[in-house]
Specification:
Elements: H1 8-37, H2 49-60, H3 69-91, H4 102-105
Helix pairs in contact: 1-2, 1-3
Length: about 110
Amino acid sequence: MADKQISLPAKLINGGIAGLIGVTCVFPIDLAKTRLQNQQNGSRLYTSMSDCLIKTIKSEGYFGMYRGRTKLCVFVFACVHACVCVHTGLSMFFVYDSVSLYFFDH
């Protein structure tokens, strides 16, 4: 199994899916952080991050926490593709071990 090479399209798809899962997990927290930061001093609507998330779910529904996520997902998918391509290209010049890079050890 260790000798089997994974194709570049498979790496791109897997990396993209991992990026989308990461965005899905982090987006509600980032939304609450942004809403807390954008509050005006005189009119504080939220008192904490959990308060922000609860009020968002009550007023906009569960999927209200993911409003605007589509553009970010496209961006993350593209960034992961670029990172995987660079990593794959550079890995042709270096030989990886399970622990370290042979290029720097020898």
